[in-house]
Design goal:
Beta-Lactamase; Arc Repressor Mutant, subunit A; alpha+beta; six-stranded antiparallel sheet; 2 domains; 308 residues; two-stranded antiparallel sheet
Length: 308
């Protein structure tokens, strides 16, 4: 993706990192230290520290005129640590799936309107079509494992982000979401060439030069996404491509899908083998969801009731 760095944001982060570094070793910095060490102007350093102190992200010692990290940042760090801890069972689950099934397995998390692969275990095959840190837009037709459990408003927003305006295409995608939710997991069927084409089209969706063919690309992506639902009769001797099988992980309080656990066979499989993998994935996700509900009960909060 293009470099979207923000110089003002970079300067604030540089200040926070310096405060953290000095907090572990060395004396707390003064304003002049920030100016000298970070190459800031006096006015910029003063403005940054005034804002950080006002918001509680930094604290100024009036006697020594030094700065240290503040309680607000500690609260954010604690919340972030709790979030990572909450997804630890999911990360452990994908490691078990990769070991037991012999295929790559991954945790994908929703971050705003993006989907991020946060954990991936390649298993014994050591081959995958994705890597930890890969980001994708949470916009139709990508992210079916998340959108399928959204309410009607959430589904519409998902389609709007994907610029889905064709009523026929919208109806087809809504049917895909409904079928996925009823089944309890997503099933992506693509051969390697189709998977590469889908990945390339997804990357091109935000390119202004690709806008003239955007509608055609979205239509193709929607067709590809629905391959796992519009299946013809298959015998156990037939082998069909399976790219991914994924099940949702819910927030115990909101019941929104915050992550998915998926296995990526990336090969042709029989119907029986596909069902076996789906059973493993859905059981792993169910165990993670149960652990999440139990953890929410232990910390005194009341988890939401399942709506499936």
């Amino acid at each position: 993706m293009p470099n979207a760095a923000s110089p003002p944001t970079t300067r604030v982060l540089d200040v926070l990192e310096l405060l953290a570094q000095r907090g572990q070793s060395g004396p707390a910095p003064r304003l002049g230290d920030l100016v000298r060490d970070l190459g800031l102007t006096q006015a910029t350093a003063h403005a940054i520290m005034a804002t950080l102190c006002e918001r509680g992200w930094a604290v100024r010692d009036p006697d020594h005129r030094t700065f240290t990290l503040g309680p607000a940042l500690a609260a954010v760090a604690a919340r972030a640590a709790a979030e990572r801890s909450r997804h630890q069972p999911a990360r452990a689950a994908v490691h078990r799936l990769a070991k037991d099934l012999g295929y790559p397995a991954a945790v994908t998390e929703r971050v705003g309107d993006e989907l991020v692969i946060t954990t991936i275990d390649l298993g014994p095959c050591q081959v995958a079509d994705a890597a930890a840190g890969d980001r994708f837009p949470f916009a139709a037709p990508l992210g079916v494992a998340f959108a399928a459990w959204e309410n009607s408003e959430g589904r519409r927003a998902w389609m709007d982000r994907g610029a889905i305006t064709d009523p026929v295409l919208a109806e087809r995608l809504d049917g895909l979401l409904t079928a996925t939710r009823e089944r309890g997991y997503t099933l992506e069927r693509m051969d390697p060439a189709m998977a590469q084409a889908a990945k390339a089209m997804a990357a091109l969706r935000g390119d202004p030069q690709a806008q003239p063919v955007r509608r055609a690309m979205d239509g193709l992506l929607a067709e590809i996404a629905s391959l796992g639902v519009r299946s013809t009769a298959v015998t156990d001797h037939d082998r069909r491509p399976v790219t991914a099988i994924a099940a949702p992980v819910f927030d115990p309080h909101t019941r929104q899908v915050t992550a998915s656990i998926g296995v990526h066979p990336l090969r042709a499989l029989s119907a029986r083998r596909t069902d076996e993998i789906a059973t493993h994935v859905t059981r792993a996700a169910a165990a993670v969801n149960a652990a999440s509900v139990n953890a929410a009960s232990d910390d005194g909060s009341r988890p939401a009731s399942p709506d499936r």
